[in-house]
């Protein structure tokens, strides 16, 4: 009892604290030990000024890498008469600020009062990252992630509650947190993604990185999601970052302030980014995987065509990509084909006009005249843009391929595996009434025959075209929830199991049945829904089967990562007995700038890609202005 009383007395006595250093205020954890308290006589030199405040750096370092020597002083009018290089002593209130409950807090001093101006004209030198600091950690984000930022279950702890002691040499978020408020320089920066609509751009400097791909982006791999990157936010001088920066662009040296906002640690640069050099060639080469026109050398492409409607502005470029870059595969797996009047929200569900318009454009671009097959979903039941009724569909060369005993199912028919193996509905949807699909696409299964001389079938195979549920609802990879929320992962887990069991039932009838599943799985190959998928189905990840280097396995850029949501998985029967599969990712949409970007890419003998609009752009949302 008495010790409790003493404790209370102590808290009261430090409510106004004198002569704290900036490092003491920041402390060695994410949250300040002085949060909510009024402080005075905090001294530092002004290192930068912004529209809503300024940053000070302590003149007496505590030599502890965990405690930042700098802090943000929030106050719109404070410092009107002060300038960079002024040494000042201030009072104010220590505040932990975040604009959204899912973000990490930023430590700042608010309602500042200038107590003393000590001197002016002090030299302000930025810390060069990787030289004056340790190198940013390259794999893990926080000690709270259990070693895997995509582990399930997720959101088992919160940074704001666990508030671990920072380990800046081990964890990326700890590293950037330990530099919050600091003026830093990024030497020889490279853009590792495209800017968002505000011009915010992910970069790495000249420090050691992991996951670098041939385009100088960083590819996410198992247990390595690239925390060594940093996003460059709005310039402090009111200029605007370019919006056309591309993957792998080299930039001028960046100097600015480390802070946290909109879900990410970021650097606010003193002035706008400037591109000095871009990767060459600008566009990828066309695929070298060509059809032999026979059963022994068929080609397959996959393309998320992103809300494609008959009137879509990007329809001609999709057609040109299929002809020029994918060299007109014998069979195309398409995702996100909208109905005949696109997002108009009425009872129309047929995509015949959308698909025939695309086919005409392909033919006009010098390609073959494809045939198509799809199954229209029930109106408004499969997710995506309201009214668009997106679905998966196939384009195929009718001179070479045909459906085996066609018997198309409706949106509600569940196709089943019959002896043979054969399908009860061809094409058909897998268990469309199953609650696991929720408002998302049901996989489209088809059984095909290869047309030989005289119209005789010379072989056959099954395809499953998938577009699993989206990652909407994900929290920021640098947010409060640890591991971060992987939106829709439970749905995708159930969808993966249903689809895998369907494939297994084909393979249970005949181990030599050829099965190709492809499309937008909205998940990484090394994450649980897809590891379950391969283990139940017995299918092989084609990337691994043909030995594509893990860093070259990407079909999409999201946050700091080149990543792979689109995949092809094939039955072992297609890889055995001297058969040799080839596979490429054709980066028609990841290498270009955001304005030029059409939909996505991948090529079995393959091709896939994605503006996956369903993925939650957590960091792109602007909260209300910083008001307290
Ligand atoms: C403020 O702190 C400085 C040391 O940084 C000290 O010399 C000075 O006496 C303090 N002033 C007050 C009023 O506490
Ligand atoms: C800035 O200086 C001017 C003139 O000395 C003074 O009138 C004004 O109050 C000062 N502003 C602040 C915010 O200290
Ligand atoms: C769409 O085309 C298919 C043949 O591919 C045909 O059976 C069906 O009736 C068409 N639907 C509409 C609404 O025109
Ligand atoms: C994570 O869990 C906490 C409860 O512990 C909850 O308040 C928060 O909303 C969750 N975060 C997300 C992004 O779902
Ligand atoms: C991505 O899709 C959204 C929604 O359809 C669209 O508004 C946006 O323009 C697309 N972005 C690009 C770069 O194609």
UniProtKB/TrEMBL annotation:
Pfam families: Exo_endo_phos (PF03372). Residues 604-628 are annotated as: Disordered. The keyword Signal applies. Residues 302-574 form the Endonuclease/exonuclease/phosphatase domain. GO terms for molecular function: endonuclease activity; exonuclease activity. Residues 608-618 have a biased composition (Polar residues). Residues 1-19 form the signal peptide. Keywords: Endonuclease, Exonuclease, Hydrolase, Nuclease, Signal. InterPro entries: Endo/exonu/phosph_ase_sf (IPR036691), Endo/exonuclease/phosphatase (IPR005135). This is Endonuclease/exonuclease/phosphatase family protein-like protein.
């Amino acid at each position: 009892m008495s010790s409790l009383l003493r404790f209370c007395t102590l808290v009261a006595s430090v409510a106004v604290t004198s002569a704290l250093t900036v490092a003491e205020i920041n402390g060695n954890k994410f949250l300040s030990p002085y949060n909510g308290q009024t402080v005075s006589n905090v001294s530092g030199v002004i290192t930068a000024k912004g529209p809503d405040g300024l940053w000070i750096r302590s003149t007496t370092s505590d030599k502890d890498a965990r405690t930042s020597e700098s802090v943000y002083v929030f106050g719109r009018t404070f410092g009107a008469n002060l300038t960079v290089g002024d040494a000042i002593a201030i009072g104010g209130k220590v505040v932990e600020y975040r604009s959204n409950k899912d973000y990490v807090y930023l430590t700042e001093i608010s309602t500042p009062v200038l107590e003393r101006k000590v001197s002016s004209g002090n030299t302000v030198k930025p810390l060069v990252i990787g030289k004056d600091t340790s190198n940013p950690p390259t794999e893990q984000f926080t000690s709270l992630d259990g070693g895997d930022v995509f582990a399930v279950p997720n959101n088992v702890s919160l940074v704001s509650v666990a508030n671990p002691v920072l380990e800046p040499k081990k964890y990326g978020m700890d590293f950037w947190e330990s530099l919050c408020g600091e003026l830093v320089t990024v030497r020889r920066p490279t853009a590792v993604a495209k800017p968002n609509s505000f011009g915010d751009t992910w970069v790495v400097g000249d420090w050691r990185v992991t996951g670098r791909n041939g385009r100088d982006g960083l590819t996410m791999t198992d247990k390595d999601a690239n925390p060594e990157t940093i996003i460059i936010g709005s310039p402090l001088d009111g200029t605007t970052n370019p919006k056309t920066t591309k993957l792998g662009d080299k930039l001028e040296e960046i100097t600015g302030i480390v802070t946290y906002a909109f879900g990410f640690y970021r650097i606010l640069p003193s002035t706008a980014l400037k591109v000095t050099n871009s990767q060459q060639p600008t566009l990828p080469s066309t695929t070298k995987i060509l059809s032999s026109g026979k059963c022994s050398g068929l080609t397959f492409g996959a393309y998320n065509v992103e809300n494609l409607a008959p009137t879509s502005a990007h329809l001609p470029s999709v057609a040109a990509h299929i002809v020029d870059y994918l060299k007109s595969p014998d069979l195309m797996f398409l995702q996100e084909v909208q109905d005949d009047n696109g997002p108009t929200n009425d009872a129309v569900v047929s995509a015949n006009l959308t698909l025939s318009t695309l086919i005409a454009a392909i033919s006009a671009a010098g390609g073959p005249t494809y045939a198509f097959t799809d199954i229209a979903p029930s109106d408004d039941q499969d997710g995506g843009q309201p009214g668009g009724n997106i679905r998966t569909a196939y384009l195929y060369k009718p001179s070479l391929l045909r459906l085996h005993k066609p018997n198309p199912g409706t949106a509600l028919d569940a196709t089943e595996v019959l002896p043979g193996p054969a399908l009860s509905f061809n094409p058909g949807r897998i268990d469309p009434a199953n609650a696991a699909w929720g408002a998302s696409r049901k996989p489209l299964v088809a059984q095909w025959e290869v047309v030989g001389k005289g119209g005789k079938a010379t072989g056959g195979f099954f395809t499953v075209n998938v577009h699993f549920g989206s990652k909407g609802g994900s929290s920021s990879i640098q947010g409060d929830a640890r591991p971060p929320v992987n939106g829709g992962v439970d749905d995708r887990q159930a969808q993966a199991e249903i689809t895998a069991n369907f494939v297994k039932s084909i393979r249970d009838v005949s181990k030599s049945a050829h099965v190709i599943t492809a499309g937008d799985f909205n998940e990484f190959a090394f994450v649980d829904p897809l590891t379950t998928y391969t283990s139940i189905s017995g299918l092989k990840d084609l990337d691994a089967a043909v030995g594509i280097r893990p860093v070259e396995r990407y079909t999409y850029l999201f946050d700091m990562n080149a990543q792979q949501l689109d995949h092809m998985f094939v039955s072992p029967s297609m890889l055995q007995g001297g058969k040799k599969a080839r596979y490429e990712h054709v980066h028609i949409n990841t290498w270009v700038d955001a304005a030029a970007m059409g939909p996505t890419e991948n090529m079995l003998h393959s091709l896939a890609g994605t503006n996956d609009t369903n993925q939650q752009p957590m960091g792109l949302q602007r909260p209300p202005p910083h008001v307290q």
